[in-house]
């Protein structure tokens, strides 16, 4: 009788203790975990190359001006403050009809009063093979008149979790009469 009483009080005490620690644990903001618990093994460096089609003209435009800023004498030349929303195709070759590998979704805006400098904020969503649905996020300055521009790759999702790197952009063709551009992109990305 006495021993079963002490047994059950030990049991009650133990479960109180356990629930105390469980509660304490669930109220922690952060805790250390291993890389392996998220399936992160070896970090890799990958090079991606594709073409970005900035189609501003015609019925199938994929880059749409959504804000036209008030012009002042100083900002008129660069369209400072204008904002475009894009869902541009990314293809494996420079022709618009070549294989689609992804889309560039986001915005760019003229952020430079003197000279052409775009602020770009985009997600590149891939549609090919194992990368289908994975995204890379790019945030940077695009001095479109320079032959070579560099923008940071600041993160990603899916296969690109914890990604970081940089993108190199080179204008492949620019149609002066309608404003359409094809830009070669080379991305160098660390990811798992
Ligand atoms: C626009 O897209 C439609 C549907 O895909 C296509 O039939 C048409 O030829 C395209 N027009 C131009 C100018 O590319
Ligand atoms: C802006 O340009 C117009 C036309 O060139 C000129 O008349 C005006 O004085 C300029 N305004 C300023 C604030 O410089
Ligand atoms: C990519 O994923 C979408 C949505 O899950 C699916 O509909 C599509 O068929 C996939 N494409 C390829 C090439 O795997
Ligand atoms: C440039 O745009 C004009 C006007 O839309 C078009 O007629 C011409 O074919 C385009 N040039 C190229 C090389 O695509």
Strand content: 35-45%
CATH architecture verdict: Beta Barrel
The side-by-side strand order for the widest beta sheet comes to 1-3-4-5-6-7-8-9
Number of domains: 1
Per DSSP E runs of 2 or more residues, the count of β-strands stands at 9
**Globular, elongated, flat, extended or rod-shaped: what is the shape?**
elongated
Q: Spans of 5+ residues with little confidence (pLDDT < 50)?
A: none
Structural category: mainly beta
CATH topology: AOC barrel-like
The CATH first-level class comes to Mainly Beta
Query: Major β-sheet, in short?
Result: 8 strands, antiparallel, barrel
Number of helices: 1
What key phrases describe this protein's structure?
192 residues; mainly beta; AOC barrel-like; binds 2-acetamido-2-deoxy-beta-D-glucopyranose
Question: What would you say about this model in short?
Answer:
The protein is mainly beta and 192 residues long. It has one helix at residues 2-26, and strands spanning 44-54, 63-67, 83-91, 100-110, 118-126, 135-142, 149-157, 164-174, 181-191.
What topology emerges from the helices and strands here?
Elements: H1 2-26, E1 44-54, E2 63-67, E3 83-91, E4 100-110, E5 118-126, E6 135-142, E7 149-157, E8 164-174, E9 181-191
Antiparallel strand pairs: 1-3, 1-9, 2-3, 3-4, 4-5, 5-6, 6-7, 7-8, 8-9
The structure holds 2-acetamido-2-deoxy-beta-D-glucopyranose (NAG) (4 copies).
One 2-acetamido-2-deoxy-beta-D-glucopyranose binds at residues 127, 132-133.
How would you describe the overall organization of this protein?
The protein has one helix spanning 2-26; strands spanning 44-54, 63-67, 83-91, 100-110, 118-126, 135-142, 149-157, 164-174, 181-191. By secondary structure, the chain is mainly β. The protein has a single domain, classed as Allene oxide cyclase-like (AOC barrel-like, Beta Barrel). A hairpin with a 7-residue loop joins strand 4 and strand 5 (118-126). It is elongated and about 90 Å long. It binds 2-acetamido-2-deoxy-beta-D-glucopyranose (NAG) (4 copies).
């Amino acid at each position: 009788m006495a021993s079963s009483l002490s047994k059950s009080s030990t049991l009650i005490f133990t479960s109180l203790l356990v629930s105390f620690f469980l509660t304490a644990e669930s109220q922690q903001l952060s805790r250390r975990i291993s890389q392996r618990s998220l399936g992160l093994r070896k970090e890799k460096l990958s090079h991606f190359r594709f073409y970005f089609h900035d189609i501003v003209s015609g019925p199938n435009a994929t880059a749409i001006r959504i804000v036209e800023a008030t012009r002042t004498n100083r900002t008129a030349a660069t369209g400072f403050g204008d904002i475009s929303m894009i869902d541009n195709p990314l293809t494996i070759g420079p022709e618009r009809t070549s294989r689609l590998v992804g889309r560039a979704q986001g915005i760019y805006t003229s952020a430079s009063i003197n000279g052409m400098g775009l602020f770009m904020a985009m997600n590149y969503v891939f549609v090919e093979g194992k990368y289908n649905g994975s995204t890379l996020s790019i945030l940077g300055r695009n001095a479109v008149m320079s032959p070579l521009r560099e923008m940071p790759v600041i993160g990603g999702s899916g296969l690109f979790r914890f990604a970081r790197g940089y993108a190199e952009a080179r204008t492949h063709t620019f149609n002066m009469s309608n404003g359409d551009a094809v830009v070669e992109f080379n991305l160098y990305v660390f990811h798992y």
